[in-house]
Amino acid sequence: MLNLPKPIRLLVPIAALVAMVVVISGCGTTNPDVARGRELFVAKCGTCHTLAQAGTSGTLGPNLDDAFAAAREAGGFDAATIEGIVEAQVDTPRPGNGNEMATMPPHLVEGTDLNDIAAYVGKYAGVPGAKPPEVAGGPGAQVFATNGCGSCHTFAAANSGGTTGPDLDEVLPGKSVPQIEEFIVNAKARNVPGYPKGVMPENFGEKIPPAELKQLAEFLAENAGKKSGGK
Ligand code: HEC
Ligand code: HEC
After folding, report:
1. Residue 21: nearest ligand to its CA?
2. What are the pLDDT digits (tens) for 85-99?
3. What does pTM read for this prediction?
4. pLDDT for 126 beyond 90
5. Residue 204: CB within 6 Å of ligand 2?
């Protein structure tokens, strides 16, 4: 099913990809824009991949911090190696396990976009203590940003425009704080016709401490439908 990224499985494919990197890193990339790479990563990759510095929490694909942390620590992988692996995977994704929802589509990005994303991932994936920048809007807005809600959801007060999940300004007005907490941690409590189940991560109950979950739900309840993002 969707729980494919087992650490043991990841080691072998990475080794296989290193061979391709030698070829790819030959075509010199000039001055990639890492900040732009971050924005593109959140929008195009974060729906499936967790990466702490991006604040993304997708679970359909492997956690990219976990995928590269051990190799980076052992000193075998530097940023350029990781960059090459990312470019190879985006150009020619390894076949998934036959589950279309959990398969990485080929050529999601190309050219400069890919260079920027690869440079960004190379810089931050698996770096201990990497975390997203601080955002304005209070503690609940920070929890929203740190957990990548915006890579899948539009919410004006957080300036986010994700479209993988429903627009929270549309579905949340009138909902109470406890109801919203339940939506976040319990897939069975959610009911939005037209959106697939199994895409929203189901580990927020473990990942987000109760106090932060409450701050997040309060932020959502207070701002839903106000369309008052600081734009
Ligand atoms: C629809 C979901 C999806 C999207 C979107 C997606 N990926 Fe993936 N990605 C996957 C899956 C699933 C795998 C594991 C493939 C396999 O089974 O080996 C993967 C694997 C990877 C790997 C290899 C990790 C490892 O353990 O070796 C990298 C690197 C990667 N993706 C980067 C990206 C980047 C960069 C983007 C955005 C341009 C992206 N992915 C977008 C689903 C996705
Ligand atoms: C990888 C994409 C993704 C991420 C990340 C994600 N969601 Fe969702 N979310 C969805 C999808 C798809 C649905 C609709 C299907 C479902 O109910 O699971 C959804 C549904 C919801 C609903 C609607 C509940 C209802 O019945 O009206 C809420 C509220 C919600 N998400 C909040 C959040 C919050 C808060 C975060 C961050 C902590 C978050 N989501 C992160 C994809 C995502």
Report:
1. 1
2. 999 999 988 876 666
3. 0.82
4. yes
5. yes
End-to-end alpha carbon distance in the chain:
40
Query: For 96-111, how does the pLDDT look when each residue is reduced to its tens digit (9 = 90+)?
Result: 666 666 678 888 999 9
- Per DSSP (E only), the strands in 38-165 are 50-51, 56-57, 154-155, 160-161
The percent of residues in the chain predicted with pLDDT above 70, rounded, is: 82
CATH-assigned architecture of domain 7-124: Orthogonal Bundle (1.10)
Domain 139-223: top CATH class: mainly alpha
What ranges do the domains of the chain cover? Answer: 7-124, 139-223
Give residue 60's identity as a one-letter amino acid code. L
- Relative to the CA of 41, which ligand 1 atom is closest? 37
Same fold for the pair 7-124 and 139-223: yes
* Residue among 75, 67, 47 nearest 5 (CA): 67
For a mutational test of ligand 2's pocket, the pick from 60, 200, 203, i.e. the residue with the most ligand atoms closer than 8 A to its C-beta, is 200
- Residue 199 CB–ligand 2 contact under 6 Å: yes
